[in-house]
Design goal:
The longest helix is centred in the N-terminal third of the chain and has 29 residues. With 477 residues, the protein is of the alpha/beta class. Helix 17 links the parallel strand 4 and strand 5. The N terminus is likely disordered.
Amino acid sequence: MENFKKTHLTKIVKQLREDYGIAPLAEEINTGIYFENKEVEEIVIGKLMLEPDSLWEVSDILTEEMFSEVRTRKTYAAITVLAKENRPYDIISVIHYLRLHEVNSFGSDTFDASYVAGLTTRIASSRNLMHDAMIIVQLFAAKHGVAMAQTAIEIFKTGDAAEGFEYMEQKMFDIQNIYNQNYEITNTAILGNDVIDSYLKTLQLKQKGIQPGVSFGYDAMDNAFGRIQSDDLVIIAARPSMGKTSLALCMMLNLAEQGFASAFFSIESSKNQITTKIGSVKLKVPYSDISEAKIDDEEKYNQFLEGSWAEVPIYIDDSAPLTPARMEAKIRRFIMLYNIKIVFIDYIQKMHSDVAAFSRNDEIGLITGALKRINKKYAIPVVALAQLNRGNEARSDTRPKLSDLRSSGEIEQDADKVIFIHREAYYDIDMKTNQRIQDVELICEKNRNGATGNVFMKFDSLITTFLQENQVGELPF
């Protein structure tokens, strides 16, 4: 960090001095305490007042609180008010506004029109405005980062490591949001070249027999819905006990055989319950045979005791409550430590947002929006399980629809793929009780980058596993 300050930031300030002839800074830059730069703040304000409509170039990333000095902070606030009212924010307009509204708000000093007027005297144009504004953003984020670290140190000194890590995970999300607000607009010609490069890379992979994206774990789903891409948020939804968790586990186990590691955030079930389900599917024995210690097949019993069935790259986190910020911190560690390729969440309506929301629907919207940002930021697909309401049960055709999703508008809006699980036997007590192998329909109602449609598979109700038609014969009957 120290080296970064003395190389990157020092070079920027040196260049600004050469460009604008500003006075040397205090020795703060060499002492490691460098969280504000009043000269850069004044340059940004000067450039804004010099060029009409320049505010919109930086308004997405720059806020009033980021200015460290009262006069520049109040001047920037005046500029934003005038801009929002579609009024000019040149020197005359800003001085007039400040005379009317902020005459006694410049700290201990009264309002000084000559100070505001002088902010433009060394500025020729608004060129490099975004670059200069990002210096202010960077220093503001650094200031918050140091404050966070200092508070975390005090918490760790109490010996409560869990509280310290939790505090850091919560604050890191806020600080990264400050720093990552630089929304760049890119020319389509540049984007076109990126798309061409991506196409050629994908073509090269396919020629080597490597398919792009991550598999669903089932060829039938890959062929019908397309593989899961790195920026996909996939929602798998169903009524309770329809098999959401089982499908997720089967997908992860099939991916494990292909060498893909998965992270599984289980809010619904404990780590032991999930691991027992894995054993049930891998050994092809009922869940109760493991949980109640009644495996009566000697070969299966020996396989169970050997434990090799548990040696799969699936990393389970069952901590609660789970928020997007806490999950992001854990995903970052999972990627670093275990090279995970896909994330599963069971299930989305059990999560909580990091900030207060007006309603539960609004909170779900905050959660899915955060999941989509995590998904894009780390280029890792997220598969979130979701609960359906009872709307489908009131219809003669019980196949679920998008409107059956709890908080459907919020979830549907952010999802790239929405897939429903439907088993007719679920609604027929005779079939549910007596028919071990049941028909299951996977219904893709939304697919942002591919086709919608249905896939028909089989569900083994004894082992609670999903099978393609060609896998049914592998079961011991």
